[in-house]
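To whoever is on call:

I kicked off a structure prediction for a single chain this morning and the downstream step that reads the tokens threw a length-mismatch warning. I double-checked the sequence; it's 318 residues and nothing unusual in it as far as I can see. Pasting both halves so you can look.
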Amino acid sequence: MEYRSWNIDRLEELVGLWNREIGRDFPMSLDLFKQNSFDDCNVFTEGSLIAVNEENQVVGFVVAKRWRDEIDVGISKETGWIQVLLVDRNYRNQGIGKKLLQHAEQKLQESGMNHIWLGKDTWHYFPGIPSQYGETARWFEKFGYIHSTKEYDLDCHFEEHEIEVPLKQGVTHSLLQLVEKEEFLSFLHRCFPGRWEYEAIQYFQKGGQGREFVVLKKNGRIIGFCRINDSKSPVIAQNVYWAPLYQQELGGIGPLGIDSTERKNGYGLFIVEAAVSYLHKRHIHSMLIDWTGLVTFYNKLGFEVCKSYHSYFKKIER
């Protein structure tokens, strides 16, 4: 067994391994894997590794990440992530996974990280270990990973009949216009610094024009938002990653946020209703909300759990 550096020349083999092992649950495309595991500037190539057999075939890999972007949105520079670790089932129980994990952990520790999360990375695939992979969770526990929270994906199929656009006194909703970009980013920086702000900045950098954001306004000022995604979005967003599992086009809803000074007015549910109506106008009937713990909240609109994940982290001693 040999271990090679992270290399995009292996893209097709890496995606092939993914789809053989977990593609039935999480179908991977070349474009998505390239976007998340190569194009993301936070990929920690020194901590990522590819295992190949004697025939030079890919039989395992690990992708590590740490914050490297020059944009400052308050994301910790001492937190590392293992985006994915996968080994061909025919080569398991040979120490390959352990070697890949230890390599990623060592390199992350040497670079100053004090926490490692499984998933939850920038341009992530998962917010934790998918619940159906209990054996994988137990394997990581043996290496000191601690269970944190449980996260959920929820979906809903809305019928063909027209969905009424919701109205609420005192506020209006609309799709974000490009001329409102700076106001919107200022709102996010003030109210939701961190991942959501970062994803919005990346969205505009990659050519986004605003159609993916429903904004809530009060007296002409943005007080809330909900993101919507579909197949025409400028990036493959997390809530449409697994669109091949659906017979019709999948639309994504979330994240959403309301200014803390405007909460307790029912605006959160209202902006999600608006988001559903905008996607429905695009003839999208299947919709998914990813990475949330607010199951009861979304149940009110008919969304039900379709996938769940167990969040894990490990503290690194220096």
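Update from on-call: the warning came from a stale cache, not from the record. Cleared it. Sanity check on the structure: Residues 60 and 87 are 4 Å apart (CA to CA).
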